[in-house]
Amino acid sequence: MEPVVENNNEKQYQRFTRLNRLLHIVMIVCFLSLASTGMTLKFAYTSWAVFLSHLFGGFESAGYIHRVAATTMICLFIIHITDLVRRKRREYGTWRALLLGPDSMVFNKKDLRDLIGNFKWFIGRGPRPDYGRWTYWEKFDYFAVFWGMIVIGSTGLMLWFPEFFTLLLPGWLINVATIIHSDEALLATGFIFTVHFFNTHFRPEKFPMDLVVFTGRMTLEELKEDKPLEYEALVRNGDLEKHLVEPYPEIVVRVIRIFGWTALTIGVSMILLIIYAMVFAYQ
Amino acid sequence: MVPLNKMSTHTTVRIKMNMVRTWVLLAFLLACRASLLVAQENTDCLACHNDKSLSGTKNGKAISVFVDEKKFGGSTHAKLACIDCHADLAGKELPHSEELASVDCGKCHSEEQELHAKSLHGKAIARGDVLAPHCKECHGTHEIYSAKDSRSSVSPLKVPYTCGKCHQEGSVVQKQRTIHQENIIENFSESIHGEGLLRKGLIVAPNCATCHTPHSILPHTDPASSIARKNIAKTCTKCHAQIELVHRKVIKGELWEKEAHTLPACIDCHQPHKIRKVFYDQGMADRDCLRCHENKDINAKNDGRSLFVQVDDLNHSRHAKTACSQCHADVNASRVRACETIQKKVDCTSCHAEVGQNFQKSIHGSLLAKNDSNAPNCKECHGSHKILGKADQSSPTFATNVPALCARCHREGKKAAVRYTGDQHGIIEHYAESIHGKGLMKSGLTVTAMCTNCHTAHSVLPRKDEASSVNPKNLPQTCGKCHSGIEQQFEKSIHSTLVNKTDKPLPVCNDCHSAHTIRRADENAFKLDIMTKCGRCHEEISKTYFDTYHGKVSQLGYTKTAKCYDCHGAHDILRVSDPKSHLSRDNVVGTCQKCHAGATRKFAGYLTHATHHDPNKYPILFWVFWGMTGLLVVTFTISGIHTLLWLPRALKMKRDKRKKLSLPAETPSEEDKKEELSGDKK
């Protein structure tokens, strides 16, 4: 928060493209819709679920919202993949370059070293590792969502069109799909609203939230501190200037912050409701 | 008369032939007698027995053995020889000294003898009852005349006196034996029958034997008796042929004999021995009663209750044509105040016999019999003089008024409700809110079920009583009275005791629909409640239902999803293994298709009661669930440790950074040095 205010007029480093930011915002909206509508069914035995279900206008309306959000999410997934293909063609040339290059989301040996190094740092047995463009937990978040989309998406489709899927598959697979869909969703929401929220927003350096994913911009100071290797590489290659942009005006930042706060609040409340449902009202 | 000369030849020939026949017959009879005349002539007997002072002994007692020759000569037995009856004297030396045996009339009158032996009187003789009448008690000994002979003791006019010898008021028989009727002879002589016979000399008027028969006298409880309830109509109609024509208002004619047991018998209205056509007009007319009872100030002597009778009420009541004395029986027309002989309270059952019988068996009746002060009698519900039919809107027994009527005692806090120990509470309030109550009270549908439709009006019994209309055993029939078709379905279902021979309790209507809070089955509240209703018995299976999508949607309070009855059926529920079940192999796909139009056989393989908690029944689901749970646990454990270790370190990092910012000139701390070092290394 402070750096943004202090360096109000300084140029900032653009970390995320406009499309990625947009996708993340849409993803937040979809994810919160999916989670909140889905949870009403999973925790139907709680009074908050009954309340929420009625708030959404009934189980049919909630289901409708769930399906619209799911469809949007699938589109979002396709757009992301298309974007990857496009970027491969324009920026990398080969899949190999895209997947194994230094800016890749794919895990590599350095991530393992960073993980070990980070644990050492946690217990005071070493320095904080120097991260590159993507830290290992960012990569994990990314692939968690990737995996989740496939698992939840496919089982969700089975539950949406059981008549179609049972043309070939046995009926009990619908039961299996229900369990997987529901538990994987629990994993996703649980992970996003606790681990992801902490790793990116609630950890003391970023508390209460990191706006970079919305603005796409971070101060150079932050970049130096968070991703020293990326900074060094940019400086070394002389590419830094290319990525420097004007910061957003205060009003835009404020709108973004309101949106972020809303999403965070919804996420945290949902976690509390889930904990209540699973610990105190489990049936 | 037709003059002889104008008679046809044919007629004269016939008369001649008849005369010839008579002579031949007489000659034959005389020939038969000839042999007896030789030995002991009646004159031989009468030689001694003509003496008025002649006495003998019978059972050790001195008795007169005088035989009035004149009277005997005129009797029906005049032509018989003494020894025909006193058979033990045949061939004996005369005069005889021994006691004679009792005469056996049955030698000739075997039929009558037989009837008599079976009768009340005959049985009493067999028992050795000294008061029991033999033939001679009614018919006499040597002065026996034909019943048609006015001198006979059994001629119509004499019968009441003959019977009265034993059955008149104050007689030994009347006092010492159990005779159910009182003042028999007195009442008979005042009755229309008695008056006709005794005062007007109409010998066709019935006497005792007309109704009771001469020889087959049996108690009214004996089904063979002429006065048994089921025979009484037959007995009365011997004279009152086609009497049903004038009783059409009372009953349907053809039922009179066919269903005598359900109809009032003649005697219910026309009390035996008191029968009168215009009984009430002779000093017993309503106006005589009203002379006093019209007076508003008239009170009972003993307890001061008002005895005032609102004539208008009576005239508009169902009993407008019923005379006072018909209900207030025991009146005695011969008194100045006919009612002073009234001993008993009004007994409605003398006309409403069947209703009375039902009532006596009911909880109300049995409590009343125990003199329970809380028990209602007829009056309590029907009123007294203002009795109106249940079709009359202003009657308390009119459909829409019944709940209020029963509420007088059964409303919470009232006398019946406070002694009730069952589980139904707020009955009246709940009923009013129920579908039946709303139909009746709000929509005014008088055909809607109200208290008496289910509990019956007069046979009200507690639910636990097997004869109760609301006993689980009988409830389906009770509800089925209106819900036609449902009962038949239910009776074929697995829940019916006719099908399911389990010793576990089976549900009946009220277990799902409740008793007094009964709701429309298409109301959401009912639909959602049904799962817990089924779940009371089907505990496990209903729990697993709530683990599935269907169950969860209904848990959220929505009904547009499969509930128990959508798949299993409601009243026609059958074992899943039953081929006729909605869920049998042949029917299950169709059942799914009710909601899922595209359902196939594979689709029907969806486990609607699946649970991932049962490794034996659903191993795949169990392991998938635990696999997923394992994934969650591992993920959250690792990331949780990662986060928890990170947090204190990150806090320290932030503190150090702040220190560095606020003290930029100071020498770097040990740690900062280390960090710098490590940075250099890289």
What overall geometry of chain B do the principal axes of the alpha carbons give? elongated
Estimated helix fraction of chain A: over 70%
Order of helices and strands of chain A: HEHHHHHHHHHEHHEH
CATH architecture of the largest domain in chain A: Up-down Bundle
Portion of residues in beta strands of chain A equals: under 5%
Q: Cα distance, first to last residue of chain B? A: 164 Å
Helix content of chain B: 40-55%
**What structural class results from the helix and strand content of chain A?**
mainly alpha
Task: Write down the CATH topology of the largest domain in chain A.
Answer: Fumarate Reductase Cytochrome B subunit
Round the Cα radius of gyration of chain A to an integer and report it. Answer: 21 Å
Which stretches of chain B are poorly predicted, pLDDT < 50 over at least 5 residues?
Answer: 1-9, 34-38, 277-283, 668-682
Mean pLDDT of chain B: 83
Overall spatial form of chain A: globular
Give the N-terminus to C-terminus distance of chain A in angstroms: 43 Å
Q: Largest interface, per-chain counts? A: A-B, 55 and 54 residues
Number of domains in the coordinates of chain A? Answer: 2
Oligomer: heterodimer
Number of helical elements of chain B: 36
Q: Can you tell me the residue ranges of chain A where pLDDT is under 50 for at least 5 consecutive residues? A: 1-7
For the sheet with most strands of chain B, the description reads: 2 strands, antiparallel
Summarize the structure.
By secondary structure, chain A is mainly α.
Write out key terms for the chains shown.
heterodimer, A: 283 residues, mainly alpha, Fumarate Reductase Cytochrome B subunit, 3-stranded antiparallel beta sheet, 3 strands, 72% helix, B: 682 residues, 36 helices, disordered N terminus
